[in-house]
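Objective 1b. Sequence-to-structure analysis of Autophagy-related protein 9.
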Amino acid sequence: MDYRTQNNEENDGSDENEQVLSPFVHFETHEDENNSEKQSKWSHQQDLDDFFVQVYQYHQKHGFFCIAISEIFGLIQFVFIVSFTILLVQCVDYPLLFRSSPAARNITDKIQIHQVIQSPKQCLHNMYRITNWCLILSIIYWIYRFACAVYHLASYFNIRSFYTQALDIKPHDLPNMTWHEVQQRLLIAQRTHHLCIHKSNLTELDIHNRLLRFKNYEVALVNKGVLPLRVHVPFLGDIISFTAGFKFNLRLILFSGPCAPFDQRWHLRQEYKIHSQREVLANQLSRLILLYGIANLLLSPFIFIWQVLNLFYGYTELVRREPGVLGSRRWSNYGRLYLRHFNELDHSLNQRLNRGYRPAMSYMTSFVNYSIVETAKFVSFTAGAIFAVLIVLTIVDEDVLNVEHMLTLMTGLGVLLGVCRSLIPDENAVFDPEQMLQLVLAHTHYQPDSWKDHAHTDYVQAGFGQIFQLKYVYFLEELFSPFVTPILLCFHLRRKSLQIIDFLRNYTVDVQGVGDVCSFAQLDVAKHGDLKWFAPVRAKQGNDAGITNDGKLELSLMHFHHTNPKWQMPKQCEAYLEKIQERAVENMQTSSVLQQSLGQVQRSLYNDAQSTSSMISKARNDPNTYSHFASPNHTSIQMSSQYPSTSMPQTSASQADLPYRSPAPFGVLSKIHSQMFDSSNSTFLSGSMAPLQTFSSAAQLDMNISCLFMHELRHKYKHGEYEELEHINEDHDDDTKC
């Protein structure tokens, strides 16, 4: 593990004047001068972080053409929203439209559109002052967005050339390639084109550290309890506020804005690594946060207007068509950070949370407030009866629609019916919260240990509701975010300034060829591992030896291994995963997780080995049959209702999560699979090995089983089933101070 720790109390100033070398500085040598003509234009990228981010985004956004269309339509959409809003506010003669003026009441003919809409000259002459200010700000912002769009298109055109020339990926081949395949070619391109000057070879972890440098800090801040901010609201209790506006300001304050602790994308300012400077830096950060809060307060009216317009234009038709959408749920901004692994890319997180969406909805809907249900049934019956009568009347005589506000009444009744029916639970649903929460855990991988065996309680439901929030709550949060964000910045985030400074100092390491990164992102279980999650015993260290909560580091290591099976991990990480495998083999007969998860897998894979082998042999001789057999929707494994289905959804290759069909070498399923074959004869082995490898979701299944088994081990530790961990104090607060 090639990194060194910054920042403990012992280095108080000894390195203050030491020159900090950027990992992107180009040192000219005589050999470089002689070979400069041989170097490609991709050699020695000045900002490798930004370059890798563009490479990743180019793949996820499906190429240059789609990116160009998105940028152009984004500019056009902004112009449409502004111009259409000004048209509605300033240029429509509403007294004439509604026939509310005496002159309009005397008009007997049908009113034409050109009579209602005023001329541009009249609109400009009658424009309100606030409208003028909004228009000027909109023009300035549009020019800024246009300049950014031009810059992005120029950058992505350069990335398009990089894909074509350096990675040998043509535009028409891109939709059929996974990110894992692109990443493997990127590693080869480093050896050929020397993208990074300080390392001859890059690893998968290096790329992920660059892509997610600041995202890993955010995940760690949430895991260590520094974020999110909890605000006590009368009658509502503690509320977690982590809106998109607050996230945007947080990233500017800590990472990318002026006066941020990171003066470059890859370098934490030297003074932040010195313990004696913590008080001074905390005061500076507090003042910076205050300035951002004041700026947000001044801009809040304009941001609020934009939020209202965006929500109105974007969701009104959807709510009218599907009223139940307000009662549906989404993973909250806080939940996405709490459930995110270190070094987990966006598409991988989205795939994982999408798989866990239905189990999460089933769990939350299993909690029923019967008083609300009875009220919804009554209102639904009453509104339905009125709506039915109006429908019959319109069938009998369509002039009923000409009655004043009749269409409004029918539309409102339809929306009310949709909302009420969404509150009435399915009469065939089975209430089994423990099993449902277990299904959620299999995909989301994280939950507090205190939730175990308490899934039926309101406490757990409320906690999970903060992670999996109602959509109407999300809409309200975002709508009032312009006014809430200044309060959070000025009165809540400022109080955590010292805590943030200590966090950055204690959990930042300098990695050769990568720069300053969050130390947790190195996945070093020997340094940051938790003994209660079976991490290796380590010598007691100073402040920088903190551990993560809820097994974040250990589960992140397991996940990164499954998504990057070719990654050459350090010996201590390999030893840790091997120890988990050994425990799985020892507990095959006693582990409820392994028994439930593998029961039908074993029957499907091993009981009919010869027939499965012949099926595969026949399929390989027939390309059409083989493609059907290997498709995500065709598998010989039928998971029981006691375990979540892991079949991959039919999405484009760019959204694919795991690169291989076969499990990772150090996964729990792969170990048990090989262990069972070791006890069988060679004939049986040769005929039975194929099914698991051709199972398209075997890697995802392996990760899910590994996660559940690791949680089961943690639960056994808590109840004292492992003697070697008896010395651990379970009452110790995991939220170690920064």
